[in-house]
Specification:
With about 110 residues, the protein is of the alpha+beta class. The protein is built from 2 helices and 5 strands.
Length: about 110
């Protein structure tokens, strides 16, 4: 399964070079621009290679020394592939993120 996600991350780099992919200990993390959040999560939900089916958690980490001081983490599970996927977005106090509740009711 890891090989499938490695090839998927290469595919993402080709079609969306602004998205950074990191595969660590069999877990994949995508670093996404906040304006692309909904579009990218929809893509992950619908794409047959990854099939993000459950939103497990939304959390944030505060890094006061950084310009974009908050890192918001969306943690998903692909039940089909038994794979955890994280989508990370860096924002500051004035950024407003679109809600993912229309895609995953557990976000509400």
């Amino acid at each position: 399964m890891v090989l499938q996600f490695k090839s998927f991350s290469k595919y993402i780099k080709k079609i969306r070079p602004s998205i950074i992919c990191n595969l660590t200990q069999n877990e994949i993390t995508f670093y996404v621009n906040s304006k692309d959040l909904i579009k990218f999560i929809t893509f992950l939900k619908l794409h047959t290679t990854i099939k993000v089916e459950q939103l497990i958690d939304i959390t944030a980490v505060d890094f006061p020394q950084r310009k974009q001081r908050f890192e918001v983490l969306y943690q998903f599970l692909s039940v089909t592939y038994n794979q955890r996927i994280t989508v990370s977005i860096s924002v500051n106090e004035s950024n407003i993120l679109d809600s993912v509740v229309k895609l995953f009711s557990s976000a509400g």
